[in-house]
């Protein structure tokens, strides 16, 4: 650990990276009674902290190693960091990216002088291929996080923090993927200021470090969430895990809705738009304040990057109000008779603002409503549900139902009497040409498509809802066919939102 601390102090990152600012979130500080600061790694030339570690690794290679060139696997910020650093040092850089990588990211790497090789449908497959190419070509492999020189480069952020804020400092909130960023920051801070809390922040659906620290050994996730793609890692590094086990105080996990709310908080504080992974630090910080009710603390959130697709902003905005507990979603059954809809709106909704209203006749006796209501907090959301029940309305709170939020709210239409033995699946399709064709080819035969919904959200993966008719006696091989695709999926046949509205 002493060597790594020295490596941070002797890092060569400033030959390419800049010392980013530490900005105060004035309004948020005032409203919470704490001093909240943002470390602006979105200011780097590649809009991400990844340049620090990549450049430090490449700069410390021997002359003979530099002549061989470098190779890495990445679909995001690390790829750009390596390409930028290699060009600055006059080296060849080969970047293996999944075939599902959007063109905008491929073009960004090529503009920085990197050569791109597409392989596989995900990072793991690309990484395996990069390792194979490393053996065949003799090029130097640059791991995105589990490398001491990479960790040391990221650790220079901690050195800047202590110089920029030499006084009171209570906690630092750090986004966590493979662990390179938090390992470098934690080691440096705990060596000099052991009283400062180091708190990692992970998405609830990509919490490899949280699970590893809890179990006491590195674990591998079966699936990882794709919204915060910058931290979508199945398994953390061996080196990073060992450092975090010793120096990290705790890991906070956050939902997608909470993360969208955190991204909005960063925007309000800086007028900068961060990528989902970049908003994790602020999201964890806000959650920490809510849970601990702390006052007069000095808290720092690391804004790790801002490589955000503009098209994703619509999705972020829609989910933010739920993340801030300002919208509640309910499925309500009302009697199908004249005046019932008016009674529902006047007597129950009252002065509340309706954010969404979908109505579908279910039978001659009843109708189903998908309704969104503006609320001030979780308590008001619960009170509205109790009010519905007291008034005799069958209802379900579906605010936390991801199927309802991602698909159902856009396609309320009722059931078809023609559909038989339908099973419902949610898929994460790679946003590449031919993804649907591959699905159709894999499922051809006995399974008729009875429902299909897709809505572009600006990510690497598209969220798709598909209904399949499964005739009796011809269903045994369906899961085998779906698994052969390699697409992530989840069955939703028993989801109450589907049962009510589709």
- CATH architecture call of the largest domain: 3-Layer(aba) Sandwich
| Spatial separation of the terminal alpha carbons | 57 Å
Number of helices: 20
Low-confidence segments, given as residue ranges, are none
Count structural domains. 4
CATH class of the largest domain: Alpha Beta
Strand content: 15-25%
Task: State mean pLDDT (0 to 100 scale).
Answer: 88
Characteristics:
single chain, 502 residues, alpha/beta, Rossmann fold, Alpha-Beta Plaits, 4 domains, 20 helices, globular
Summarize the structure.
The model has no long low-confidence stretch (mean pLDDT 88). 41% of the residues lie in helices and 21% in strands.
Structure report:
By secondary structure, the protein is of the alpha/beta class. The protein has 4 domains: 221 residues, Rossmann fold, CATH 3.40.50; 92 residues, Rossmann fold (3-Layer(aba) Sandwich), CATH 3.40.50.1100; 76 residues, Alpha-Beta Plaits, CATH 3.30.70; 92 residues, Biosynthetic Threonine Deaminase, Domain 3 (Biosynthetic Threonine Deaminase, domain 3). Helix content is 41%, strand content 21%. It contains 20 helices and 18 strands. The radius of gyration is 25 Å and the shape is globular. The protein starts with a helix and ends with a helix. The mean pLDDT is 88.
């Amino acid at each position: 650990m002493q060597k790594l601390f020295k490596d941070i102090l002797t890092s060569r990152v400033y030959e390419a990276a800049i010392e980013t600012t530490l900005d105060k979130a004035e309004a948020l500080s005032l409203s919470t009674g704490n001093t909240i600061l943002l470390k602006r790694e979105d200011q780097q030339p590649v809009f991400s902290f990844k340049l620090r570690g990549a450049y430090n690794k490449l700069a410390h290679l021997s002359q003979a190693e530099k002549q061989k060139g470098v190779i890495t696997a990445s679909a995001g910020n690390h790829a750009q960091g390596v390409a930028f650093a290699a060009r600055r040092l006059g080296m060849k850089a080969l970047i293996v990216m999944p075939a599902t990588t959007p063109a905008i990211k491929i073009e960004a790497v090529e503009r920085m002088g990197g050569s791109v090789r597409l392989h596989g449908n995900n990072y793991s497959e690309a990484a395996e291929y990069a390792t194979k190419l490393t053996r065949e070509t003799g090029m130097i492999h640059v791991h995105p996080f589990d490398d001491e020189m990479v960790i040391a480069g990221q650790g220079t952020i901690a050195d800047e923090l202590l110089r920029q804020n030499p006084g009171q400092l209570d906690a630092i909130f750090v986004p966590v993927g493979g662990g390179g960023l938090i390992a470098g920051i934690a080691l440096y801070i705990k060596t000099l200021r052991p009283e400062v809390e180091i708190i990692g922040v992970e998405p609830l659906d990509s919490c490899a470090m949280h699970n590893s620290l809890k179990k006491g050994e590195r674990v591998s996730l079966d699936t990882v969430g794709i919204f915060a793609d910058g931290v979508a890692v199945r398994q953390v590094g061996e080196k990073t895990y060992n450092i975090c086990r010793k120096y990290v105080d705790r890991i906070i996990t956050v939902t997608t809705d909470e993360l969208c709310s955190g991204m909005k908080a960063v925007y309000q504080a800086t007028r900068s738009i961060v990528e989902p992974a970049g908003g994790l630090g602020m999201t964890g910080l806000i959650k920490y304040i809510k849970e601990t009710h702390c006052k007069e603390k000095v808290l720092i959130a690391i804004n790790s990057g801002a490589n955000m697709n503009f098209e994703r902003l619509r999705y972020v905005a829609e989910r933010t109000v739920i993340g801030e507990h300002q919208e509640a979603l309910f499925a309500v059954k009302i009697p199908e008779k004249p005046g019932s809809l008016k009674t529902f709106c006047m007597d129950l909704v009252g002065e509340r603002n309706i954010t969404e209203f979908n109505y579908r006749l279910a039978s001659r006796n009843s109708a189903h409503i998908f309704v969104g209501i503006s609320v001030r907090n979780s308590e008001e959301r619960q009170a509205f549900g109790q009010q519905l029940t007291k008034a005799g309305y069958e209802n379900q709170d579906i605010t936390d139902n991801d199927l309802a939020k991602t698909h159902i709210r856009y396609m309320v239409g009722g059931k078809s009497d023609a559909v038989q033995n339908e099973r419902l699946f949610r898929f994460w399709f790679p946003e590449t040409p031919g993804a649907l064709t591959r699905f159709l080819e894999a499922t051809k035969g006995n399974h008729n498509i009875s429902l299909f919904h897709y809505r572009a959200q600006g990510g690497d993966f598209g969220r798709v809802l598909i209904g399949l008719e499964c005739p009796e006696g011809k269903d045994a091989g369906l899961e085998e066919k779906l698994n052969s695709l390699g697409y992530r999926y989840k069955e939703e046949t028993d989801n109450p939102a589907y049962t009510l509205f589709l």
